[in-house]
């Protein structure tokens, strides 16, 4: 729904005493409107200086208008396309929510099955992909393996590979091709994770079920199968992840989503955009904080050491990763949903020694005035990781799996841009370094004034195109003919 002007911001520039009326649209102003505020060049030239907005860290800057996800951090609300997350959690599964985010409505059973089959068809890895993952030592870090596997898949995808070699946009306003590439990209990454998991643990990779869900096939390919029958994905793990991933499906303009869209503004393919999101997502202040949190839990070792660790955090001698969120001023609505899943899996959670330490930290943090006064609570990403551990996932795979649950949401934002005007993202900066004033530019020479030097040094003959002194086709005409033959 297009934003409407709801008021005006009256600004008086004390430098010039000029007054401006800036339109307000649904409680935001457009930064470009502030460019109307100008001041004369202090150097005395006739070039006016336009006002620029500086916001390090983008704390109060919106870069997109979107219909996908609403987050109200003051009221603790999340909605996916107008559906409260609590309703979707209770009544739907992750497949439904993925479809809702991507295509704007909840799917019919036939539509779900159609997407399932498309995912499964793209999940069969080529030898190149298998060999790429196998080339890594089994104890390698998961993150670079994720990037390498996804790149190996993309190298064999003709549409994605050709995107950089075509002069017409491959995906912009071409939703049929974009949707197919989105599905393949998600499938490629799911298969990459499964191959990594199997390679590290010397397990046999299992090809996907053509009618299986995205989560079901991920578990099947990873070898997380039904413990009683050995056939199909583990139903308990699948049922938990189908709900947990709803909490992670999208979170509006996160750092990784912004990174994905920044790449997308160059008309990059969805695979490359997903890689940009992964690079951001594995950073220590983003999804990578989960790895650091688990490393800290491993060092604490036992709940009895938790009070001492909390005191170290308060004295800034240690850092508590996975706590706090700058968007929320009240309780994150996802926490109660994840706590519901934890209660359903309480026996498994209590049996995990690492989680006993984690819950001891959380209990103390919820009671200590230092954390309470600062509203520092375990964020949803960390709390959800406890479930992964309880369900038997090793810590080296958890962050990677979480990123898989988030990539479809990021690509939904990318898809949303495809019918918007093409505009590459190119932020401004405020230069603060040394500056030389009054640079002499009089030494510039035109081509005509430099003609003699060209002739003398290089033997280049410079002709006027209209002089009539040559029977050859003029260079300008040649250029036009060449351009037509190459690009028409």
From TrEMBL:
The keyword Transferase applies. Residues 442-451 have a biased composition (Polar residues). SUPFAM superfamilies: Citrate synthase. Coiled coil: none annotated. Keywords: Transferase. Residues 435-455 are annotated as: Disordered. InterPro entries: Citrate_synth-like_lrg_a-sub, Citrate_synth-like_sm_a-sub, Citrate_synthase, Citrate_synthase_AS, Citrate_synthase_sf. The keyword Transferase applies. Belongs to the citrate synthase family. This is Citrate synthase.
């Amino acid at each position: 729904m297009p934003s409407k002007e709801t008021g005006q911001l009256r600004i008086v520039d004390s430098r010039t005493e000029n007054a401006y009326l800036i339109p307000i649209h649904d409680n935001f102003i457009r930064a470009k409107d502030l460019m109307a505020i100008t001041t004369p060049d202090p150097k005395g030239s006739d070039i006016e200086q336009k006002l620029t907005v500086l916001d390090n860290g983008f704390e109060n800057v919106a870069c997109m208008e979107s219909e996908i996800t609403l987050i109200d951090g003051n009221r603790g609300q999340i909605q996916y396309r107008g559906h409260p997350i609590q309703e979707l959690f209770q009544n739907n599964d992750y497949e439904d929510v993925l479809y809702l985010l991507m295509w704007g409505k909840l799917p019919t059973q036939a539509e779900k099955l159609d997407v399932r089959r498309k995912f499964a068809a793209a999940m069969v890895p080529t030898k190149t992909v298998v060999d790429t993952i196998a080339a890594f030592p089994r104890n390698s870090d998961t993150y670079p393996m994720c990037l390498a596997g996804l790149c190996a898949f993309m190298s064999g995808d003709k549409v994605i590979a050709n995107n950089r070699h075509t002069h017409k946009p491959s995906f912009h306003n071409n939703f049929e091709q974009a949707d197919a590439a989105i599905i393949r990209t998600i499938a490629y990454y799911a298969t990459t994770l499964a191959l990594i998991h199997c390679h590290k643990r010397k397990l046999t990779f299992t090809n996907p079920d053509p009618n299986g869900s995205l989560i079901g096939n991920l578990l099947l390919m990873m070898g997380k199968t039904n413990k009683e029958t050995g056939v199909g994905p583990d139903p308990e793990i699948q049922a938990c992840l189908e709900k947990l991933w709803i909490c992670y499906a999208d979170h509006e303009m996160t750092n990784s989503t912004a990174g994905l869209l920044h790449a997308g503004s160059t008309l990059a393919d969805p695979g490359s955009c997903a890689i940009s999101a992964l690079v951001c997502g594995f950073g220590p202040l983003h999804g990578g904080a989960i790895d650091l949190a688990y490393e800290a839990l491993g060092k604490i070792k036992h709940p009895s050491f938790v009070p001492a660790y909390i005191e170290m955090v308060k004295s800034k001698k240690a850092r508590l990763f996975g706590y706090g969120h700058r968007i929320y001023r009240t309780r994150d609505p996802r926490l109660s949903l994840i706590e519901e899943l934890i209660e359903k899996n309480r026996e498994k959670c209590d049996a995990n020694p690492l989680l006993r330490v984690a819950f001891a930290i959380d209990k103390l943090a919820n009671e200590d005035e230092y954390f309470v006064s600062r509203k520092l609570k375990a964020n949803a990403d960390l709390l959800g990781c406890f479930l992964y551990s309880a369900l038997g996932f090793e810590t080296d795979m958890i962050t990677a799996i979480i990123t898989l649950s988030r990539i479809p949401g990021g690509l939904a934002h990318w898809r949303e841009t495809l019918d918007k005007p093409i505009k590459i993202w190119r932020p401004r900066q405020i230069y603060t370094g040394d500056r030389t004033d009054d640079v002499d530019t009089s030494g510039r020479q035109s081509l005509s004034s430099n003609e003699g030097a060209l002739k003398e040094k290089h033997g280049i003959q410079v002709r006027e195109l209209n002089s009539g002194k040559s029977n050859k086709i003029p260079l300008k005409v040649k250029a036009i003919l060449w351009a037509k033959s190459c690009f028409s």
